[in-house]
Design a protein that fits this description.
The chain is an all-alpha fold and 96 residues long. The chain is 67% helix and 0% strand. The protein has a domain of 57 residues. It is a multi-pass membrane protein.
Length: 96
């Protein structure tokens, strides 16, 4: 029905983590300075919470900017080969 992406590639995960750290650090610094200027620690906390919410909205969902380089997976092996190898292993174990 709907084709909603639910993944990020590895580089996208790194990009999202870096962006979230920058946003939270920036809002924390601004909040600390503003709270010091007006002498209200609660304003520092509110600004930091706003930064966390913004960072969450921008980095938690798998936006298309985080899915630019998907992995190319190998094709699966036929199932007949591993099944034969495992049955040969069990025969060897029974003989010993």
């Amino acid at each position: 029905m709907f084709n909603i992406a639910t993944h990020m590639d590895f580089e996208g995960q790194g990009r999202a983590e870096k962006l979230s750290r920058i946003i939270i650090t920036l809002f924390g610094g601004v909040g600390l300075v503003w709270g010091y200027i007006i002498q209200q620690f609660s304003q520092t906390v509110y600004i930091l919470i706003a930064g966390v919410l913004l960072a969450s909205i921008l980095t938690i969902p798998p936006w298309p900017i985080y899915r630019k380089k998907p992995l190319n997976w190998q094709k699966p092996r036929p199932e007949s080969q591993p099944a034969q190898a495992s049955s040969d292993d069990t025969k060897k174990k029974k003989k010993n």
